[in-house]
Every structure is written in C-alpha cells, then in structure tokens.
Amino acid sequence: MPRISALTALLTMTLASPLFAASGSEWSYSGQAGPQHWGSLSSEFDVCGSGKNQSPVDLAGMIEGNLPEPAYDYSEPGETLINTGHTLKIAYPEGNALTLDGRRYALKQVHFHTPSEYTIDGQRYPMEAHLVHADAQGNLAVIAAMFEQGESHDALAGFSDSLPGQADKRLSLPGEGVSATAWLPERRDYYRLNGSLTTPPCTEGVRWLVMKDPVTASPAQLEALRKAIGHANNRPLQPVNARLIVE
Ligand SMILES: [Zn+2]
After folding, report:
1. Catalytic residue status for 111
2. Which of 86, 113, 133, 153 is catalytic?
C-alpha cells in the first residue's frame, strides 16, 4: 500500500508539472509551452529563464568599436529545405565557413524567423535569416540578416511557391541549390553582441553578428515564408543587462 500511494503521489506530481504538460522537451511560441515558460519546461532549458545574456534584444545605444572584417567562404550550396515545425531550415554541407577573430566556424544551417527577432533601434523587420556556425569546440557564431519588403529576392524566386507547409516535410532546392551568400546583404557592416540561441535550450556564449543593411524580398515571397511557417516564430525581446553592443 505505501508503494501505491507513493506512486499515486508521483503520478499526481508528474501530471501537474509543466514538464509533463509539455511532454518533455516540446516547446512552442504560444500557450503553455510558450516563451514565458521555456525556462521551466525542462531542466535543460533553465537558462531560458535564468540567463543574463539572452537573445534577441533591441539593438540600441551602440558603442563604436573597431570590428574586424570576417572572411566568408560560402562555396557549397545548400540543397534541402525542411519545415521543422518551428521554422524553415536549409541544411548546409561541409565546406562553408566564417572566419572570425582568427577562428574558423563551419556553417551548419540557415533558418528564418517571421517577423524578425532582433529589432534595430526599435524597428522590427518582416523577416530575419539566421546563419548558424560552430567551431571545432562547438562554440557558436550566428549571423542575422534582416529582410525588408522590396525587390524580389533572386534565390527565393526559385522556390518560394513550393515551400512545405507541414512539419517534417522537405523540399529539394532547384538547380544547384542556394549559396549562403544569398542570405547576406552586399555591404557587410554589422552590430556585434554576446547572446544566446533564441530557441530552447537558449544556450549562452553565442557570438552574434547582426547585419546593418537589410536584404529585400517581395511582399509575395515574405508572405509565402510566413504562411509555410504557419505562426509567428520570434522569441520576445530579452533584457540587455550588462552587455555592450558594438558597431
Ligand atoms: Zn534563429
């Protein structure tokens, strides 16, 4: 009998816990598993709630600095796009890299947020691309590029009509695929800050480079991505705390 009541107690506790409600590590952009609750959904997500260097933030009050010009080597095109249920993601093969502060970061994937996650002096953009890189030790460097409404985007023109609108669906990108260069503006001036992943587990220590110039896409292209993602997938702005934003 004591064993049964202990089991009952455990079950009651488990059922009542947010961890159970969110079935382990499931998270979302709204409701019970939304951004306000990420930190309590799983012990692995603690830093989402307790971190002091979280992303995104409003980029404002920039400090003048002597930022280095990184080297971009994006020669190998991405060939497959997948709807993850949280975003649209393009996987990139080996051979693409960003060299920053003398360190080589391999490009892993590019994904999209609609609307943008970072804001610049309070301005939010309709879309933001994240180019996610990791060095051999697993240190992360992410480049963010804002998209504004304007001229049609060349690479998106090839496949924005056939984006997968359901989770786990894939699309083979047309032709040779898409170079990661397509997601960057011509002028590569950037803001730099120390931040985190904007999705659970919200890992900190991420080097963020946010491009100053936006990339353009047509209203129809932006709408196509928004529709395929199916819901806003921007984490709310986080406090800057003691961080400096350098330009
Ligand atoms: Zn992202």
Report:
1. no
2. 86
